[in-house]
Amino acid sequence: MAKKRNKNKNSGSGSAPMELSAEIPKDLPQPMDTTEGKPSNPSLNVIKRKMKGGIPVKRSKNLRKQKAMEKAISISEKSEEKILRNKSRVSRIQSAKSLYD
After folding, report:
1. Annotated region Disordered: where (predicted)?
2. Domain positions in the chain
3. Phi/psi at 2 (nearest 5 deg)?
4. What sections of 14-41 are H helices per DSSP?
C-alpha cells in the first residue's frame, strides 16, 4: 500500500482568508518608489558565462592529453623492461646449456 506522505502539506495549504479592511484608498497620494535597481546588461553576462565555461574544458583537455602521454610513456617503458628480461633469460638459458654440453 502506498503511504500518503504529502497529506499534511495538502491539508494545510488551503486558501488563507485575506483581510480586506486594511486596504489603502486609491485617492491618497502614495510615496514614490526610490529604490534604484542596477540595470543588467545581458550581453556581459553571456560573455562571462562563456569565459567561465571555456576554461575548465581547456584544462580538462590538457589533463587528458598529459595522462595519455604519461600512459604511453609507461607502456613503452614496460615493454622495454620486458624485452630486456627476455634477452637476459635467453642468455642465461644459453649459458646453462653450454655448461652441460
Report:
1. 1-46, 82-101
2. 43-101
3. -85, 140
4. none
Neighbours of 94 (CB within 10 A): 10
User: Comparing 8-22, 31-45, 83-97, which segment has the lowest mean pLDDT?
Assistant: 8-22
Q: What is the pLDDT of residue 15?
A: 58
Length of the chain counted residue by residue:
101
* Unique residue bearing C-alpha cell 502506498: 2
A 10 A CB-CB count for 81 gives: 10
In the numeric block, the cell 486558501 is attached to 15
Is residue 24 within 8 Å of residue 30, measured between CB atoms?
yes
Handedness of CA 90, 95, 99, 101 (dihedral sign): positive
